[in-house]
């Protein structure tokens, strides 16, 4: 095996082994187990970062029409020969940023548990579940076989259910059940879509399916509909989003960070890699509907945020709007739109992950998330208020910060698609961007300004070092991606161009 293939396997094996070891340690060694889990997460981040292959000019060796998927590293071995199933892994410029983001957020969450474990304790099991979730998410981003993609997609379900149901808020059982029921609905549709493609094409290899496009028009329409609906539940696309606010609100801080930061990206990444790549004709056919629903998500999410009175719930609904911009970028099927979706995915993971860390810190100190009770935060805890203000401004899309590029490129991509429909969608999406600024500024006014409320006046004033260690990398990344978007867009340029050629074939 090459070094790249070893790194691919290690990216999945290290957190899997770490989860098993942490779960096997006795309960009396709870802190030691959390430390082991954090070390496993750190090793995973190092290994996943090593997957990067700079200066890969191999695309040009394929002439003017390179393949739509040409992984930097590729591992393809027989998995179940009797069923012709392949264990096919690979990473390229589309998947790599999400792989690293997943590893980073998992490390920050595991490190956070060293300092703070929510009730009812048992941090050892929480850390093991976080690592198990990481395996499923990383596998989803690395899988280049449809069946393997589906398997990893489902690995996440039960561990995330347990995180919400055991360590969540007062209505955690209801939120966890709702998460499972919606996700199972999407999984059934996704499974039928995978079966439709594999049975018609005779293979589940995503690279081969994207390159050869062997499906008939009718099969592509059916397959895209099924795949897109199944993935849209996870994204989530309006009106399939109603599980999200409850899950985010009731989940513990680390659960909300993983949910918002990377779990939602499984749906949008799957739409780009699987649904659009495997069924491009179906994508062209359904693009106006997907784009319209995406813009509806932007507007509905923003209006609901303007009426929200609870901090975590407001941030949860903001995800509906932000992911609407990602879905709009995908729906345009242009290089600009797909690039908008990719950088929007990364920016949302960074910024909203930071926002949920901050929301958790506020609730832990004030014991409430109601906006009416949180006035005057900057008077009592100026450091916390300052970081919250930075994250809110980054999320509303201020130029120079990470949130700007995905929203701006999605609107530009829609305009470049042209025609009355797409121009109208671009205009409405731009209005949604203004509404995003309105509800985040309202949030800052309600929480940070004015005299300190009684609960805020009783809060501790300082920031703990573990909090700074968890938040610091996300603050720096929000600045880095905002100032140098080529960190994400540069490595994805060639595969995005090749994918748009497949779509426009």
Task: Give, in spatial order, the strands making up the sheet with the most strands.
Answer: 1-2
What percent of residues are in strands? Answer: under 5%
When the domains are counted, the total is 1
**End-to-end span in angstroms?**
36 Å
Structural class: mainly alpha
User: What is the overall shape?
Assistant: globular
Descriptive key words:
505 residues, two-stranded antiparallel ribbon, 75% helix
In words, what does this structure look like?
The protein is an all-alpha fold and 505 residues long. The chain has one domain. The protein has helices at residues 3-24, 30-49, 96-115, 123-142, 146-155, 157-167, 172-201, 206-212, 217-234, 243-250, 253-263, 265-278, 280-307, 311-332, 335-366, 377-380, 382-395, 403-417, 419-448, 454-457, 465-483, 486-503; strands at residues 73-80, 85-91. The protein has a two-stranded antiparallel ribbon. β1 (73-80) and β2 (85-91) form a beta hairpin. α3 packs parallel to α15, α10 (243-250) runs antiparallel to α11 (253-263) and α15 (335-366) crosses α22. The longest helix is centred in the C-terminal third of the chain and has 32 residues, at 335-366.
Question: Layout of SSEs?
Answer:
Blueprint: H1 3-24, H2 30-49, E1 73-80, E2 85-91, H3 96-115, H4 123-142, H5 146-155, H6 157-167, H7 172-201, H8 206-212, H9 217-234, H10 243-250, H11 253-263, H12 265-278, H13 280-307, H14 311-332, H15 335-366, H16 377-380, H17 382-395, H18 403-417, H19 419-448, H20 454-457, H21 465-483, H22 486-503
Antiparallel strand pairs: 1-2
């Amino acid at each position: 095996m090459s070094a790249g293939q070893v790194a691919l396997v290690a990216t999945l094996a290290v957190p899997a082994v770490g989860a098993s070891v942490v779960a096997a340690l006795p309960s009396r060694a709870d802190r030691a187990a959390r430390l082991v889990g954090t070390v496993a997460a750190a090793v995973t981040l190092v290994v996943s970062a090593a997957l990067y292959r700079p200066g890969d000019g191999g695309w040009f060796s394929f002439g003017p029409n390179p393949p739509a998927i040409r992984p930097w590293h590729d591992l393809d071995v027989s998995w179940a020969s009797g069923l012709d199933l392949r264990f096919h892994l690979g990473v390229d410029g589309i998947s790599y940023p999400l792989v690293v983001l997943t590893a980073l957020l998992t490390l920050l969450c595991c490190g956070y548990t060293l300092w703070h474990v929510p009730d009812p304790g048992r941090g050892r099991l929480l850390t093991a579940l976080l690592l198990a979730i990481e395996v499923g998410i990383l596998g989803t981003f690395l899988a280049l076989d449809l069946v393997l993609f589906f398997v990893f997609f489902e690995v996440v379900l039960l561990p995330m259910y347990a995180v919400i149901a055991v360590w969540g808020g007062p209505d955690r059982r209801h939120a966890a059940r709702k998460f499972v029921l919606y996700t199972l609905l999407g999984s059934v549709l996704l499974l039928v879509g995978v079966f439709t493609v594999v049975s018609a094409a005779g293979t589940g290899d995503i690279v081969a399916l994207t390159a050869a496009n062997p499906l008939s028009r009718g099969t592509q329409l059916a397959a895209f509909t099924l795949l897109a609906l199944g993935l849209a539940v996870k994204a989530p696309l309006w009106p399939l989003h109603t599980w999200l606010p409850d899950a985010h609100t009731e989940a513990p801080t680390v659960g909300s960070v993983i949910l918002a930061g990377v779990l939602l990206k499984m749906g949008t990444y799957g739409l780009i890699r699987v649904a659009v790549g495997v069924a491009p004709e179906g994508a062209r056919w359904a693009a106006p509907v997907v784009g319209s629903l995406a813009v509806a998500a932007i507007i509905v999410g923003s209006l609901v945020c303007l009426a929200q009175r609870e901090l975590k719930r407001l941030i949860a609904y903001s995800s509906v709007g932000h992911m609407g911009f990602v879905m709009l970028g995908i729906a345009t099927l242009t290089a600009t739109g797909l690039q908008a979706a990719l950088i929007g995915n990364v920016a949302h993971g960074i910024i909203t992950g930071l926002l949920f860390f901050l929301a958790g810190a506020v609730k832990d100190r004030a014991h409430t998330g109601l906006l009416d009770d949180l006035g005057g935060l900057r008077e009592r805890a100026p450091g916390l208020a300052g970081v919250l203000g930075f994250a809110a401004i980054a999320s509303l899309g201020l130029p120079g910060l990470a949130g700007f590029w995905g929203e701006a490129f999605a609107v530009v991509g829609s305009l470049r698609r042209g025609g009355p429909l797409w121009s109208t969608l671009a205009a409405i999406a731009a209005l949604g961007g203004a509404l995003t600024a309105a509800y985040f500024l309202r949030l800052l006014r309600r929480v940070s300004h004015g005299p300190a409320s009684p609960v805020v006046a009783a809060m501790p004033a300082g920031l703990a070092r573990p909090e700074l260690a968890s938040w610091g990398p996300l603050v720096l990344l929000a600045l880095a991606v905002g100032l140098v978007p080529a960190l994400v867009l540069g490595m994805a340029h060639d595969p995005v161009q090749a994918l748009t050629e497949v779509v426009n074939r």
